[in-house]
C-alpha cells in the first residue's frame, strides 16, 4: 500500500503516474480520464505570497460611456425617486431611463451639449417622472407643509416647462415668418 | 469490459454536458458576481473579467470552459462507478447539497471535518475502506474563510478534486477549478442541478451499455 502524500510537489497526476511507472500501485479509476481530458492548468501547489513594493492592479476596472451621465444624475438628483426592484430581471431604473433619453436626445443632435442634461430632465418630467434635486427638499419643506410640497413643486416645474415650450413655439413662428419674408424678398433683386 | 471503458474516452463530449448549461443561464444565476476588491485572492486574478465599482466580476467565458471540463470529468468518473463525495461547509446550502447527493446516489459531507477522515481512514473507519474517487467542493472555504482541509487532504491521498472557487479562494490544489459565485442561492442551485444531471446521465448510460453488452 504505497502512496505519495507530498501535495506541495507536482500534481496529483504526476505523482500517480510516477508511482505507476515504478509499479508499486495499481491504476486508479480516474487516471485514464485525466489523461484524456486534462485541466487547463496543471494543479501544482503555489505559495500564496503577497506582492511587495508598488502593487500593480492587474484587474481592469469596468466603466461605460453612460457612467458619466449616471454620475452626474446621482450627484444632482440623489438616489432617484423610485427604489430598485431587483426581483424583475428586465427592470429599468429611473437612472437607466434618464441615460437612454439622454442618448436619444444626443443622437437627434438638435440640442446643445450643455443644455442636454436639463432637457432630459424636462423630457422625463413630461413623461411623468418627478426628479427632485438633492438639497432643495429641506428648503421647500420649510416654506410649504405636508402633501402640498410635492404637488406645488410639480406645479412649479410644469409651469416653467410650459412657459419654455410656449416661448419656443413663438420663436419658431417668428423664424418661419422671417424665412417666408426673406424668400419673398430674394427673388426680387435677381 | 475494456471496450466499455475506453470507448467514451475517444469522444470529446461523450455525455453531451455542453447542452446542460449556457452563458445566459450562468448570468441569470448570478455566477459572475465575485467579492469586493479587498477580498481578492492573488491566484484568482486570471479568472476575473474586471472590477465594477470595487466588486469583482468573474469572466464567464472561462467559467464555461472550466465548467464543461469539470462536468465531463464527473460524468466519466460516475460512468466508471467511482465514489463521489460532495463537500460544502456553508450552513445555508448544507441541506441542498445533502439532498443532491442523495438523489444522485452519491455521498456528501457538510459537517465539521475531523482531521483524519481521508489521511487516517483505515484507523477511523476500519481496514478495507474505499476512499472517494472524486471530491466535489461546492464551496472551497470553511466557516472561518480558510481553505477547506479536505482540499489539502485530497491532494495528499492523490484524489482528484472539482471545486467552485470564488474570488477569495485558492484554486492551486484543486484539479478542476470552476471560477464562479458560491454565495448566491441561485448559483448554488444551478451547480447542484448541473452535477446531479451529469452524474445521473452517466449512470444511465453505463446501465444501458452493460445491458447492450449482455444482449450480444
From TrEMBL, chain B:
One of its GO terms (molecular function) is structural constituent of ribosome. One of its GO terms (cellular component) is mitochondrial small ribosomal subunit. It comes from the Eukaryota. InterPro entries: Ribosomal_uS2, Ribosomal_uS2_bac/mit/plastid, Ribosomal_uS2_CS, Ribosomal_uS2_flav_dom_sf. Pfam families: Ribosomal_S2. Keywords: Mitochondrion, Ribonucleoprotein, Ribosomal protein. Coiled coil: none annotated. It is found in: Mitochondrion. GO terms for biological process: translation. Required for mitoribosome formation and stability, and mitochondrial translation. Belongs to the universal ribosomal protein uS2 family. This is Small ribosomal subunit protein uS2m.
Amino acid at each position: 500500500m504505497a502512496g505519495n502524500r507530498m501535495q506541495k510537489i507536482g500534481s496529483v497526476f504526476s505523482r500517480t503516474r510516477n508511482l505507476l511507472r515504478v509499479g508499486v500501485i495499481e491504476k486508479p479509476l480516474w487516471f485514464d480520464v485525466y489523461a484524456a481530458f486534462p485541466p487547463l492548468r496543471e494543479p501544482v501547489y503555489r505559495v500564496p505570497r503577497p506582492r511587495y513594493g508598488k502593487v500593480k492592479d492587474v484587474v481592469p476596472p469596468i466603466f461605460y460611456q453612460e457612467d458619466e451621465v449616471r454620475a452626474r444624475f446621482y450627484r444632482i438628483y440623489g438616489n432617484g425617486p423610485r427604489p430598485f426592484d431587483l426581483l424583475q430581471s428586465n427592470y429599468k431604473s429611473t437612472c437607466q431611463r434618464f441615460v437612454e433619453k439622454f442618448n436619444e436626445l444626443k443622437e437627434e443632435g438638435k440640442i446643445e451639449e450643455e443644455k442636454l442634461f436639463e432637457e432630459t430632465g424636462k423630457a422625463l418630467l413630461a413623461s411623468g417622472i418627478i426628479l427632485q434635486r438633492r438639497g432643495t427638499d429641506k428648503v421647500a419643506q420649510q416654506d410649504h407643509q405636508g402633501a402640498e410640497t410635492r404637488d406645488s413643486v410639480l406645479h412649479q416645474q410644469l409651469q416653467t416647462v410650459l412657459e419654455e415650450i410656449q416661448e419656443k413655439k413663438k420663436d419658431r413662428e417668428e423664424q418661419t415668418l422671417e424665412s417666408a419674408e426673406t424668400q419673398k424678398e430674394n427673388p426680387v433683386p435677381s | 469490459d475494456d471496450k466499455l471503458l475506453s470507448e467514451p474516452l475517444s469522444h470529446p463530449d461523450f455525455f453531451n454536458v455542453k447542452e446542460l448549461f449556457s452563458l445566459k443561464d450562468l448570468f441569470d444565476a448570478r455566477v459572475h458576481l465575485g467579492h469586493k476588491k479587498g477580498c481578492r485572492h492573488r491566484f484568482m486574478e486570471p479568472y476575473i473579467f474586471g472590477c465594477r465599482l470595487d466588486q469583482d466580476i468573474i469572466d464567464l467565458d472561462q467559467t464555461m470552459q472550466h465548467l464543461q471540463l469539470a462536468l465531463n470529468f464527473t460524468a466519466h468518473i460516475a460512468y466508471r462507478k467511482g465514489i463521489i463525495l460532495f463537500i460544502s461547509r456553508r450552513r445555508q446550502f448544507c441541506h441542498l447539497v445533502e439532498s443532491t447527493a442523495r438523489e444522485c446516489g452519491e455521498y456528501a459531507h457538510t459537517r465539521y471535518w475531523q482531521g483524519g477522515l481521508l489521511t487516517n481512514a483505515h484507523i477511523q473507519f476500519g481496514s478495507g475502506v474505499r476512499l472517494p474517487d472524486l471530491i466535489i467542493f461546492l464551496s472551497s472555504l470553511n466557516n472561518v474563510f480558510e481553505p477547506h482541509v479536505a482540499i489539502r487532504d485530497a491532494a495528499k491521498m492523490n484524489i482528484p478534486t472539482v471545486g467552485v472557487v470564488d474570488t477569495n479562494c485558492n484554486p492551486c490544489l484543486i484539479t478542476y477549478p470552476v471560477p464562479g459565485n458560491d454565495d448566491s442561492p441561485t448559483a448554488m442551485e444551478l451547480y447542484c442541478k448541473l452535477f446531479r444531471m451529469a452524474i445521473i446521465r452517466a449512470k444511465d448510460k453505463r446501465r444501458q451499455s452493460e445491458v447492450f453488452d449482455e444482449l450480444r
